[in-house]
Amino acid sequence: MNLHASVIFLMLVAPLAILPYAAHRLISSEAERGKAVGTAYLQAQAETLAAKMQNAAKPIPPDETAALPVLIGITGKDGKLQYGTLPDDGRCTGVASLGPKFPDLSVTVMWRGDRNPGLERMRRLHLAELTVYGVTAFLFLVAVGLVLRTLHRTRRELAAQIARARDFSHRLKTPITSISLCAELAQSGRITDERKKECAETIVAEAAKLDGIVGEVLQHIEGSSRG
Description:
This protein is an alpha+beta fold. Helices cover 70% and strands 11% of the residues. It is built from three helices and four strands. The protein has a four-stranded antiparallel beta sheet, with helices on one face. Strand 1 (70-75) and strand 2 (81-83) form a beta hairpin. The two termini are 20 Å apart. 11% of the residues are buried.
């Protein structure tokens, strides 16, 4: 992975790694806060009912409590339910003692199943969390796609550079070979004046070709550095 692809990957993926964690912490905090608020409301309702029952000297809820969005139960010291119906599904509760008139009894209050704002809040929070996870997964796929695209483009550019290097190498071999042959003939000393003139002309021509090839290489390097 080249530097460009690495930078793209870090810029896009690093925040995506933090986003689900931050969303989970925020949503968990909101859920706990909502649970605390709901529990405080239920506890206040339980204490109000306990006071009313003590004043009425009756260990049963007053009639007007039927309109409350809660379930009410009376339990003994052993924890057994003596009045009402309370589901055991982990809902928030509020509990208050009925003493001193009924020291062995306590009133328990919890949300109704069809009117449970805490449950609805949790559902919305879970939906929001799933939405964040979905968006994060989508953005992660986009980031991976961008990185793969960058890598593919880099490989194509590298292949093109290798092809150009091979072409330059092939073009350099021909004039170098001609110059080397002329130099070997001159070094051997067995060469006519006419042949010396031909070798000199060949060396000048092939040197001009080399100069042109070197110029193309330098121009290509300058263009690559600017790009």
